[in-house]
Design goal:
The chain is an alpha/beta fold. The chain has a domain of 69 residues. It contains eight helices and ten strands. Helix 6 links the parallel strand 7 and strand 8. It starts with a strand and ends with a helix. Bound molecules: adenosine-5'-diphosphate (ADP) and magnesium ion (MG). The site of adenosine-5'-diphosphate has 11 residues, from helix 1. The site of magnesium ion has 4 residues, from helix 1.
Length: 251
């Protein structure tokens, strides 16, 4: 589904490649968390996939073809939900359809309301984003990402601003969405437990510059509940990942 082939990127004004000859791949229908400490270059990887940044060398392919010649090959949900405060929830959610420009307003509203029902936000279509809780806003942003209709979803720390209980409900909710819609998901997080709970395998950015992503297979089968985190092999994986990340952070 997604392939990085010796991709390098250097920010203007920096004297090193923050992404250095990086190769990795994500299979169709997989769920990978990219785990790494803040500032290590995780979001840079997403900006390269969505075309906001252009690699200095190497090639990124989605569905076997270079991204250069493609349009609308990935849905991207940035770190902040970025709903427009002056637009109603449905008008926010319908934005990808509006940009595509092929449906009437009534059709767009229909599709948006259906997407909102799908994420458990029926009845919220006419509200403004400020009338929703943090978790509800993230679900609306997710509905908007889904309406873009892409098979590859890039979610950049979508739950990091939520309180703990909302965050764990949203994680369960996201796994359910993933299983129902058969998307390929890349999910950035710096939270080890979140990475272990969600991923089929975790891709660890163990150091900056990012030269490789170490893949750690997660042993618990899907569908998962939080009870799987108590399995000895899951607890061991969590500790192993914490160890790897701590080597990078010098106190
Ligand atoms: N536009 C930019 N110009 C120069 N350096 C940048 C720019 N954007 C990010 N960086 C640097 O690149 C590093 C990685 O950023 P980022 O990919 O956002 O990290 P992460 O998402 O892992 O927290 C950071 O150290 C940051 O300071
Ligand atoms: Mg980031």
């Amino acid at each position: 589904m997604l392939e990085f082939d010796h991709v390098s990127y250097q920010y203007p004004g920096e004297d090193f490649d923050i992404i250095d000859q990086l190769s990795f791949r994500a299979a169709p229908g997989s769920f990978h968390c990219i785990l790494g400490v803040s500032g290590c270059g995780k979001s840079t990887i997403f900006r390269l996939i969505n075309g906001q940044l252009v690699p200095k060398s190497g090639e990124i392919r989605v569905g076997g073809a270079p991204i250069g010649g493609q349009k609308r090959y990935c849905g991207y949900m940035p770190q902040k939900d970025l709903l427009f405060p002056w637009r109603t929830v449905w008008e926010n959610v319908a934005l990808p359809l509006e940009i595509a420009g092929c449906l009437s307003k009534a059709q767009r509203r229909d599709r948006a309301e259906q997407a909102l029902r799908d994420v458990g936000l029926e009845g919220c279509a006419a509200k403004l984003p400020r009338e929703l809780s943090g978790g509800m806003r993230q679900r609306a942003a997710f509905a908007r990402t889904m309406l873009a209709g892409c098979d590859l979803l890039l979610l950049d720390e979508p739950f990091s601003a939520l309180d703990f209980l909302t965050r764990i409900s949203m994680q369960e909710w996201l796994l359910d969405q993933w299983q129902r819609h058969h998307k390929t998901i890349l999910f950035i997080t710096h939270d080890v437990e979140e990475a272990v709970f969600l991923s089929s395998s975790v891709l660890v950015a163990a150091r900056t510059p990012i030269r490789r992503l170490e893949e750690a297979h997660v042993p618990a089968p899907f569908p998962r509940t939080r009870a799987c985190l108590a399995r000895p092999d899951m607890a061991a994986l969590k500790e192993q990942l914490i160890d790897t990340l701590r080597k990078q952070v010098t106190p």
